[in-house]
Specification:
CATH class: Alpha Beta
Strand order of the largest sheet: 3-2-1-4-5-7-6
Oligomer: single chain
Radius of gyration: 17 Å
Number of domains: 1
CATH topology: Rossmann fold
Shape: globular
Structural class: alpha/beta
CATH superfamily: Vaccinia Virus protein VP39
Low-confidence stretches: none
CATH architecture: 3-Layer(aba) Sandwich
Number of helices: 9
Distance between the termini: 33 Å
Largest sheet: 7 strands, mixed
Order of helices and strands: HHHHEHEHEEHEHHEE
Length: 246
């Protein structure tokens, strides 16, 4: 895997701040409600949301397809963006449940807060934060969902350790992201795209499995490709894992 550029955080913030401000401009990755439908979100649920909640969607899969959320659960949406997944999660867990959306892009968080007001959802709370230092107490979350965020993180083992920390025993990680094709070599990856387009930060399935196991996760599943492709060396994947009880 290529070393993360020194200005990675600034590049990611700039890219997604621009997406929040003006989703109509040209972007180098699929966005918006039509992209969400192609990735497996139902047309009914996407069409029920206001445009402000879906126009800046930049996910790579559907983490909800990995497991149903239940009424009363606590959910963490890592890299919540404009809040589409957070709102959908809040609808699933109901008024007795809680959703915490975390993002490091101020423009996205501001848009997410406006969107929750527009749909009158009261059980979502947004916080500024980083994936490797989550502003969430230990063992307070039942399910973590994340969509197209992990490959933008420089210190991936630290992120995995943070996800493990905040989950309750028996809690689940439901991740949509992209992985390197098994045949791709580090030499072939060099020079492929930019880190903030999800290409250069991608890792192999075996590497992610090793990270999850090292952190303490079990019941790890790689649930096939989502059809999302950013280059000839990566494809979308759905990944699930469970924090095993001690």
């Amino acid at each position: 895997m290529k070393e993360a550029p020194a200005n990675l955080e600034t590049a990611v913030k700039d890219r997604f701040a621009a997406l929040a401000r003006d989703p109509s401009q040209e972007h180098r990755f699929p966005i918006g409600p039509d992209s969400a439908k192609r990735l497996g979100y139902s047309a009914k649920e996407i069409n029920s949301l206001p445009g402000g909640a879906t126009e800046s969607f930049a996910g790579v899969g559907n983490p909800f397809s990995l497991g149903d959320l239940r009424s009363g659960q606590s959910v963490l949406d890592l890299g919540c963006g404009a809040g589409m997944d957070s709102i959908l999660a809040a609808q699933r867990v109901g008024p007795t449940g809680t959703v915490i959306g975390i993002d490091m892009v101020d423009e996205m968080l501001a848009k997410a807060r406006r969107n929750t007001v527009a749909v009158a959802v009261a059980n979502v709370h947004f916080r500024v934060g980083h994936a490797d230092a989550l502003p969430v107490p230990a063992e307070s979350i039942d399910v973590v969902i994340t969509n197209g965020v992990f490959n933008l993180c420089a210190d991936k083992p630290k992120v995995v350790a943070e996800l493990f920390r905040v989950l309750r025993p028996g809690g689940r990680l439901q991740m949509a992201d992209i992985l390197l094709e098994p045949h791709v070599t580090p030499e072939e990856l060099a020079g492929k795209g930019s880190w903030s387009d999800w290409v250069s930060g991608a890792i192999w399935e075996r590497s992610l499995r090793e990270m999850l196991l090292a952190a303490g996760f079990g019941e790890i599943g790689f649930h096939g490709w989502t059809g999302y492709r950013t280059s000839d060396c990566t494809q979308g994947a759905l990944v699930s894992a469970v924090k095993l009880a001690k």
